[in-house]
Specification:
138 residues, 7 helices, 75% helix, globular
Amino acid sequence: MYLQRLKQYSEWSPLAIRVLAGIIFIMTGYMKLSNIAGTTAQFIKWGIPLAGIAVWIVGIVEFFGGIALILGIGTRCAALLLGIVMLVASIVMIGLNGLPGAMTPLFGFAAMFSLLFTGAGALALDKRFCKKEKKAKQ
């Protein structure tokens, strides 16, 4: 009975993930974009190929993907791109530090994986601008 009552609020769960992850991605993307030289040096140290290009790609995806998550617009697309970034970061960190060093990017990947399948949830611009297909009457 109690769980049935909670079900009516299930649309709010993605909102919490979107906002928190969005803030984190905006911050990390901004840090990368505001220190391209330093971040490129770190990427080179980690062995990331084409580090100079990768910094720009990752920084832009994180920054603008974070904004998209918070607004709830293009949520699934943003989650897919951010999930790929987090998966690559997880693989790099596992290679460098083992599993304990990859916990944060792994959690980011899991959060983006969840949003990819659940969508934006409550208070999202996706719902305002994208109409759902009408179900055919049976």
